[in-house]
Design goal:
Structural class: mainly beta
Strand content: 35-45%
Radius of gyration: 16 Å
Shape: globular
Helix content: 10-25%
Number of helices: 1
Order of helices and strands: HEEEEEEE
Largest sheet: 4 strands, antiparallel
Number of strands: 7
Strand order of the largest sheet: 3-4-5-6
Length: about 100
Amino acid sequence: MGGFLENLKNIFTVPTGDTTSKFVTFTIRCNKCGEEITVRARKNSDISRVSEGEKLAGAEYFLRKEILGEKCNNLIYIEVSFGPGFNIISKEISGGKFVE
């Protein structure tokens, strides 16, 4: 009986230990209120593989994400292209700035 619930727990729980290899993390700042927001994109679900016909300047993976902070209702949009090993090739942002 507990098997079903245990499986659900495993799906929605981030494992402890080294999780940095499963995520790409960005810190952004909202242009409207100045809030700094940490964005974690899961490599296996948030980031898409670029298909053969859509090659974007050598990109193998692509992320398009809308971000909403807690302080205001300003939507921030990011688009990031990744090469092999999830190395960032290019990144664009609207409504905010990347914090380096």
